[in-house]
């Protein structure tokens, strides 16, 4: 019984470490995404203050994700794509209350009163924002973001690929039927 509880707790702890990005997107309902076969980059210059190596890794990941979906790079393409990266610090507070609880192997939960237990930690959320513009109309047609807790070091390629795959999973948006 104890082994089963321990293994379940361990699996839940590991699942909590493997966070997936929170994804949001918005699309122009009047845009015709079925005509898009090729793309170009809206800008290929590294924004001031951004790590140029990180910029190249994100750009390469987006290129690979679009190629896997059948889009080819052309100049000009039917749509132009651009991205930005951002980070935001926040404080996360978890209040466990004044009662500590534990599970008794012979059955049931038990607890006792005590001092309030509060966990406070600083968290950095990284956000990848992808914008897509129709090159014919020069208007935005799609906007997507992926936000995830990140560390201060530069993310490795697997983290970048995961964020790019998550945000582009909604491009092109599903066709809405009435």
TrEMBL record:
Keywords: Signal
Domain DUF4136 positions: 23-173
InterPro entries: DUF4136
Stored Pfam families: DUF4136 (PF13590)
UniProt signal peptide: 1-18
Source taxon at top rank: Bacteria
UniProt protein name: DUF4136 domain-containing protein
Organism of this sequence: Sphingobium scionense
Taxonomic lineage: Bacteria, Pseudomonadati, Pseudomonadota, Alphaproteobacteria, Sphingomonadales
């Amino acid at each position: 019984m104890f082994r089963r509880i321990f293994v379940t707790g361990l699996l839940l702890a590991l699942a909590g470490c493997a966070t997936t990005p929170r994804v949001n997107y918005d699309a122009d309902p009047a845009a015709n995404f079925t005509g898009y076969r090729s793309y170009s980059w809206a800008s290929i210059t590294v924004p001031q203050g951004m790590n140029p190596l990180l910029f190249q890794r994100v750009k390469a990941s987006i290129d690979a994700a679009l190629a896997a979906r059948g889009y080819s790079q052309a100049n000009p393409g039917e749509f132009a794509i651009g991205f930005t990266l951002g980070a935001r610090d926040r404080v996360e507070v978890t209040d466990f209350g004044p009662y500590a609880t534990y599970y008794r192997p012979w059955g049931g939960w038990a607890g006792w009163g005590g001092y309030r237990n509060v966990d406070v930690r600083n968290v950095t959320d990284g956000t990848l924002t992808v914008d897509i513009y129709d090159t014919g109309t020069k208007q935005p047609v799609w906007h997507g973001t992926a936000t995830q807790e990140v560390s201060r070091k530069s993310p490795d390629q697997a983290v970048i690929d995961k964020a790019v795959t998550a945000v582009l999973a909604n491009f092109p948006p599903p066709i809405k039927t009435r």
